[in-house]
Amino acid sequence: MTKIQTQFFLIDRTIMKKIPSFILAAIFSVGLPVAGLIVTPTASAAVPSFDFTDLAEKASPAVVNIRTTEKVSANPAANQDEEMQELLKRFFGVPIPQQPNQVPKKRKQVPQAAQGAEEEVTRGIGSGFIISQDGYLLTNAHVVDGADEVYVKLTDKREFKGKVIGIDKRSDVAVVKIDGSKLPWLPIGDSDKIKAGQWVVAIGSPFNFENSVSAGIISTKSRDGVEFAIPLIQTDVAVNPGNSGGPLLNMNGEVIGINSQIYSRSGGFMGISFAVPISDAMKVADQLKANGKVSRSRIGVRLSEVPKDVAESFGLAKDQGAFISMVEPGLPADKAGIVAGDIVLDFNGQPITKWTDLSRIVANTKPGTKATITLWSKGKTRTVTLVTGEMEADGVKATKEKEKEKEAASNLLGLYVVDLTDDQKRELSVTSGVIVNNVDGVAERAGLQPGDLITQLNNNDIKDAKQFNALIAKLDPKKVAVVLVRRGDTAQFVPLKPSAN
């Protein structure tokens, strides 16, 4: 049988097993269509080149493995009693897992003098790539966010301690600096010029298998991600946990994206992966290097798409624009006279085709810019002008949260909380309470997580973080404290046995 080129891999193996061998022989000998392909035995037929060896050899030295660590308390503390564990099991739906810093009952206890000490444990792994000889590199924000230490390992086995210059959660971009010179680096391509169907290569550390290379094609160059400030590149390149932050390369070995996430129902690769376009990522990186944060505009509205039937009932020729579902009082949109129910058709001369366009265009506008907005309002167009405000930067938020954590200090329950934002209050339909920002000690062992909502402590309604911290400071270490925790649509009282650090 004539050897078939690598197009063969597109045929599903389960289908192959069900096709009799004589039919397969006929398929490959006469060039019958299989899975939409014409497979021919002609040795001279033009086929794409699948040899990525040169590209991989040149690019790999500049791709790094990133390992992050955090410091956790080495205090073993007393294990929760069986009754408490059973209650927590009913609350969270699954048995509470053994925590890394929790000592089993039969294990010898750490001496009292050692309690309260901290140890460094691995928090996560990811990838990144060097963009300059002096040691600047790019990765994903979610790879390094919240880490106490960042370690960067090159393919030649050198390891550096990295300094996080800045992170931007809205684009999932982070800049890290290592001390070095004449380091290998990757050239930056132009993601604005990519096209669906082009071959691309990803290099990274999936499941910590360092410097793994995979290839595929661009599925679409602009896939909307609601939580992202920019559209993403969608590919079918095999990307798995650990690939995050690694480069997506074109066939010239230039970076066109930062591998960021996958669509999966299993936690592993299912044929759909996403990358942050490098042209947008570099704009973010430049701001992070210069200011440590990214400045974006906001006008103070909540948006949604314009359904086709709504567009028709409003007299619009087609379902375009961004529907204003809510206007925040006192912000630029409100001052300009924009009201809920208006549809934005144009922002500063840029047409709004999809509702997500407006969010990105506004965000990419320099704060303080005077802008003209065309609206469809009550069956006709009208124009308003406003001056854009500034969106609170991730760095500012993080600083405020750290300051609030410092106010909480190290407490008996290991709960570090922050006040609810107005958006969170609306989303959760509450007027008071606090959000868990971080946990350790007894709260971590009990299974509480960042994002949990706490509304009561020992039957005291919680108004804000300051009150919550004051109540914790007055707790009796010898008595069990009970917090009312809400996660999703479920609320339950959770007992916590205090332990002094």
Please tell me the overall pLDDT.
79
Structural class: alpha+beta
Question: Which range does the strand content fall in?
Answer: 25-35%
Given the C-alpha coordinates, what overall shape results?
A: flat
| Strand order, largest beta sheet | 3-4-5-8-7-6
Number of strands: 28
Q: Distance N terminus to C terminus? A: 73 Å
Q: What percent of residues adopt helix (DSSP H or I)?
A: 10-25%
Largest sheet: 6 strands, antiparallel, barrel
Q: How many individual helices?
A: 13
Computed over alpha carbons, the radius of gyration is 27 Å
Low-confidence stretches: 1-47, 76-83, 86-115, 405-410
Write structural notes for this entry.
This protein is α+β, with helices and mostly antiparallel strands and 501 residues long. Helices cover 21% and strands 32% of the residues. The strands form six sheets. Strands 3-4-5-8-7-6 form a six-stranded antiparallel β-barrel. A hairpin with a 5-residue loop joins strand 4 (118-130) and strand 5 (136-139). The model is unreliable at 1-47, 76-83, 86-115 and 405-410 (pLDDT under 50).
